[in-house]
Structures are given as structure tokens and as C-alpha cells.
# Entry
Amino acid sequence: MRLVDKSAPEFLYQQVIDFVEHQEKIGALRAGDKLPSLRKLSRQFEISVPTVKQAYVELERQGTISARPQSGYYLKAKQARTLLPRRAKWASCEPAEISCRSLIEQVYDAVHMPDSVALGISNPVHAHPPDKALARLMRSVLSRVSEKAVSYGPVNGDPKLRLSLACRYQEQGVLVNHDDLIITNGAQEALSIALQCVAERGDVIAVESPCYFGLIELIESLGMKALEVYTSPEDGVCVPELASVIKQHSVKACLFSTAINNPLGSMMTDAQRKNMVELLEANNIPLIEDEVYSDLYFTERRPTSAQLYSEKGLVLTCSSFSKTAAPGYRVGWLLPGLFEEKAKRIKRAQSCSTPMLQQWTLTDYLMSGEYDRHLQVLRKTLRYNCERMRALIAQHFPEQVCISKPQGGSVIWVRCRSHVDTSQFFSQAIKQGVSFAPGEIFSPSGKYKNYMRISFGVQWCERIDEAIQTLGKLVHQYPDA
Ligand SMILES: Cc1ncc(COP(=O)(O)O)c(C=O)c1O
# Structure
């Protein structure tokens, strides 16, 4: 390691800058890595803490590193071109049906292929799985509940779990009672019940564009039609835009992830979210909010729930533990607002109840405080992975690609040159041991053919670097227009 030379004519802080740049050059420090603390480097080089600080401040000014509150300094991704809003390029849509069902099937299949790096699925928990803690808690639950473990549970779910969840909403200022909550089989069932509460076959549901393909498929399976609304990669749905959409179309309900959109990672500000709820309630249009990623924010605090701003009860909140703890447990919940009676009836008619063993285990996880500690580590890991993935993509993909800068979640949205059709090399990627989600499946009208979604919900290892190199090569090799 190069050490600081106190007799050299160069300022000491400049030598620290040189040291950091050298570490980056030889690959000892990579984008997303944490730099040594001020104290550690000052001890190592036998120089003062303010000298190291001066170097870090200068590197931050140059855009090489960034400071994170109460965490330290991190090396930034240099070459990543950030995906910017392109409202002018947006062609407005008519309600549409999905056109690429077989591609969606292939994306799901690819997740379970042995020896393949699955970057096509959004599974944040993979980055920091809580499996051991949950297994321990489940064993302890099993030893207590005996034959109750195999019985039917209450339709609305475990009262203690509902109480814990209600308390979490109350901490945000949302006035909910545990009786208002319905435990569901994942967020997907909550979303399905919510849609059935507010709309019928043939009705138009406004969705963000791009939008998670599972939501588009769900809307379609209920005989409804999805209408895409322009969504900015930075701050999501724009309220004046939404106002003009609801004037032009007979929108029955909106289904939005205003906190953290999948695949954009965009986040509406709390003020915008409030305006949106006011606009929709003034027009008597229910809002189904999909909050599955809300606890995986990279910002300083959790985005507020749209439920907080509802005055008429027209906001239905859906979420789950799938993105934060255990997708396989299939435990989610619904806050149905005004539609409580109807929602409970649909839940009873369609799935009767949600498995109890998983609910009891999650209740203990929440009540012990372990869940919140786990969330803190998960958020940190995902944020680190995100920087690293952006840097890797920037390194291995053609320089024209633009990469989203997610404010949370576990996926990156990549735009390639306009003639590239990412579905065309999807099978080739699978053959080469890596999967991704082609952009086309995120829009019912087939927009986004030149986009791809890549997950950073992974445990980092060399295979991830290789997988991104493979994808980069496929994009490089794509024939010119
Ligand atoms: C935006 C979004 N909503 C809902 C879901 C479904 O969640 P769950 O697995 O809890 O049903 C997913 C899963 O990928 C998702 O990404």
C-alpha cells in the first residue's frame, strides 16, 4: 500500500486523494464500496483526522465519493448515465390488453432454472435472507400450538399480527384499528380483492407505465382493462397528467405504487401523494396503493402511505412480507378503507383464510424487534448492491445505455438504444446462464421493447459480475439498426 510521504511537496490531503484514486484504479476499491473511516485512515497514515476529512470533502466535491448520514463515505459509480424523465417522448395510450404472455411465463420459469443467475425476478430478501431467524421462531411456534397448526384460521387473519401491523400504521399517523385489516395470501391476493371491491369486468384501471407485469396480468384476469399513465423515473405519476387522464377516460380506479415503483424505483414526494389522493377523492375514484416496497427506501425516511391522506375512505392499501422477509410464506394484508364489508366477503369466498403457522411466526418476528433490525440491514445491503450494480452495468454495457437511479427496492431499469429489442436475446441469455426481465412485459401496449429490468436483490459473488458481463456482451452484439 502506498503511504503518505510527509516530506513530499504535495499537500497531505492531496496524497490521500491520490491514495483513494490509486485504490480504485487497482480494483481494491469498487463503486459502492465504503471508504475507510476518517479515524482509521488518520491512524494508518499518522495524519490528522481533519486532513483526511479535507481529502474526502474534495473527493465528494469532484463527484468521486458520496457521504451517507451516520454511515460514512462511499465510492460512487462514475460512468452511469442516469435515466431521465422523457415526457415529450410519451405517446398517450388507450386501455389495452397484454400481448406477451408467453414471455412472462418464460421469465417466471427462468427463476427456477438450476445453475442460472436469476436477475429477472425482484426478490430483495435474497440480498439478506432472514431464513435462520424465521426457522427458529417457527420451531418455537410449533412447539406451542400443537394441533392448532393444522386447523383453519380466522378469515381476517391472526388478531395479534393485525394488531402489530395496525400499530405500525398508527406510528405513521394513519388511524387504523386492527379490525380494519385483512390478512391475505401475499400482496397479490390483497390487490385482487381490492380490485374486485371497486371495479367490475370491462372497467378501466389506470396503472403506472412502466408497471410490474403481475399487476397487468391480474387486471386482465379479472376482465378489466389497464390504462397506462406516464410515470417519471424520478418522482412517479405527475398529478396534472393524472388529472388530464381522468378527464379523457372513464377511469374506474387507479392502481399505483407511489412509494417505490417496480421497475423504475421512482418515488413520489409525500406532498405529491397527498395532492393525488385529494384529486382522486374529489372525483370519487378509488386508489389502490401497492406498498410492497415501501419499507425498502434508500431515502432518509419511509415514504408516507397514501392512506394517511384519505378523507373519504377511497384508498385501499395492499402490502406483504414478500419483499422484506419471506415471499414463500405468502402473507400480505389489505387495508380496505370504505370497502371493508365487501373485502371480507370476497376473502371468505375466495380463499377462506391465510396459513396460520406463517402468520404466528411473523407476529413473533415483529414483536421481538428482530424484523426492524433485519430491515435496517436489508436496506443498507440493497443500497450498496444498487450502487455496485449501476457501476457494473455502466462498465459492461454500451455507453449509450441509461440506467435508473432507484430510490429503493431491488431492481434497476435500463434503457438501450431505441432499435434494440431485449426480448430478442432473452433466450440466448438464458442459454448462457443468466436471466433478466425484458422491458416489453412492463406495458400492456408493448412499450419498452428496448428496456430491461435487472435485479440487485442478490448475494454478491463473482457470478453476478460475470452475469452482467454476459448481458453487456449481448447488448453490444445486437445488430445496428
Ligand atoms: C409491485 C409488486 N406488487 C405486488 C407484488 C406481489 O407481491 P406478493 O408476492 O406479496 O404477492 C410484487 C411481486 O413481485 C410486486 O413487485
Notes: Residues 370-396 form the longest helix (27 residues). Residues 239 and 272 are 7 Å apart (CA to CA).
